[in-house]
Design goal:
The protein is mostly loops. The protein has a domain of 187 residues: 3 Solenoid (Pectate Lyase C-like), CATH 2.160.20. It is 7% helix and 4% strand.
Length: 422
């Protein structure tokens, strides 16, 4: 039998010319040509921060390629070899990755909304016309073992996928279709699997600690007890809204009266240990000095809310929205805040009439993949906090305490780095 046709090998210089022409095509400029890189050998080459949206990589070899922060929206990566490729923070919205080999690939914090990762196979012709499987030397296991921690996989198609030993920790996987998939030894700790379909999956050795499983189709009977600790299911954790004694909106009104009267009238709002997940009643509310120790506030919208001096330590505030909220002087120590948004929020110290300043406390909090874009974080106490892959672009960081904090993969402006430990 004749040898298979070898994949074409490009140099970085040749590739850069093709990328430049493709970027013209992607932006609608004159002289643009859509890149057709199908079956080409691109191993070890760089696409970092380049726009390859709608490009064709069918059957291409991209092993060890640098695709960090690359834009690959709607790209065709059907049966592409992406083993050990670096796609950290890349955008793969609605990309076709059916049958792609992902063993060892780094897709941490990438945007994979609507991606297609289902099974797929590709035949490749030899010189005598014989059809053989593309990448036939690779094993089925090459399709798993990828790092997708913190990735956004909402609406992804993954039914029948081989994702054994892959890392999905803290990933957003709402409504993902994963039925009949091989997930053996995969890590879903802290992942948001709300309304996802994991029916008929192999869950042997799967880690689901602190995962969000609200409305999730999954059989937990085969998951070890230690791997289910802290999961958030559709069942209420602790006290529910009906245990408040009166409607929440009335309690918020009484709390405002209490604040305005310096505690002489009304009633202080205390939602400690209550499960008020996804509640929309807190938007633009006056919640100064509210207490909510250990509360379940997953997905709550606090947009433009007054949250000065609140006590929310050890609360579950994952995926909460604090956009433009006033959070000065609040206590969020040891809280879970992964994937929360603090865009343009105010977290600088609260200055009391006496001149005393009270800094915001986020010590030992879990703040992985949070968005601090444009926030005021002056003098915030982040001691011991996990801020991995947090976005600090445009934020004010003067005086912030990052001692013993985890800062792996954080996104900062160049001039911000002088305010963080080196």
């Amino acid at each position: 039998m004749a040898d298979e046709i070898k994949n074409i090998r490009l140099t970085q210089k040749q590739l850069d010319i093709l990328i430049n022409n493709h970027e013209k095509y992607a932006s609608g400029r004159m002289g643009g040509v859509r890149a057709n890189l199908s079956h080409q050998n691109l191993s070890g080459l760089s696409f970092a921060k380049r726009n390859m949206s709608d490009a064709d990589f069918t059957g291409a070899i991209l092993a060890d390629a640098d695709l960090r922060e690359a834009k690959l929206d709607r790209a065709v990566l059907f049966c592409a070899d992406l083993r050990n490729a670096n796609l950290r923070k890349a955008s793969l919205v609605r990309a076709d990755c059916r049958g792609a080999l992902l063993r060892g690939a780094n897709l941490a914090a990438s945007n994979m909304t609507g991606i297609d990762l289902r099974e797929g196979s590709l035949a490749k012709a030899t010189t005598d016309g014989t059809l053989n499987a593309a990448h036939k030397e690779h094993k089925a296991g090459d399709k798993g073992g990828a790092n997708l921690s913190g990735a956004n996989l909402s609406g992804a198609k993954m039914s029948g996928a081989v994702a054994a030993a892959s890392n999905f920790s803290d990933a957003t996987m709402k409504s993902v279709k994963l039925s009949k998939s091989s997930l053996k030894d995969a890590n879903f700790s802290g992942a948001n699997l709300e309304n996802a379909d994991l029916s008929e999956c192999d869950l042997t050795g799967v880690n689901l600690q602190s995962a969000i499983l609200i409305g999730t189709a999954i059989n937990l009977s085969e998951v070890l007890p230690e791997n289910k600790k802290g999961i958030l299911t559709s069942e209420t954790v602790g006290k529910s809204e009906k245990d408040l004694g009166m409607p929440l909106d009335q309690l918020i009104k009484l709390h405002k009266i209490w604040v305005d009267s310096s505690g002489q009238k009304g009633r202080k709002l205390d939602i400690s240990a209550f499960d008020l997940r996804n509640n929309v009643g807190f938007v633009n509310a006056e919640l100064t000095m509210m207490r909510g120790v250990g509360a379940i506030l997953y997905g709550v919208n606090f947009t433009k809310t007054q949250l000065q001096l609140v006590d929310l330590h050890e609360a579950d505030l994952r995926h909460a929205n604090f956009k433009s909220a006033d959070m000065r002087g609040g206590n969020y120590s040891q809280s879970m805040l992964n994937n929360a948004s603090f865009e343009k929020a105010q977290l600088q110290p609260l200055i009391l009439p006496s001149g005393r300043t009270l800094p915001t406390n986020m010590s030992n909090a879990r703040l992985r993949y949070v968005d601090f874009t444009g926030a005021n974080l002056q003098h915030v106490n982040f001691h011991g906090a996990d801020l991995s892959d947090a976005n600090f672009v445009g934020a004010k960081l003067e005086g912030a305490n990052f001692s013993e904090a985890k800062l792996d993969g954080v996104h900062m402006d160049i001039d911000q780095k002088k305010f963080t430990p080196q």
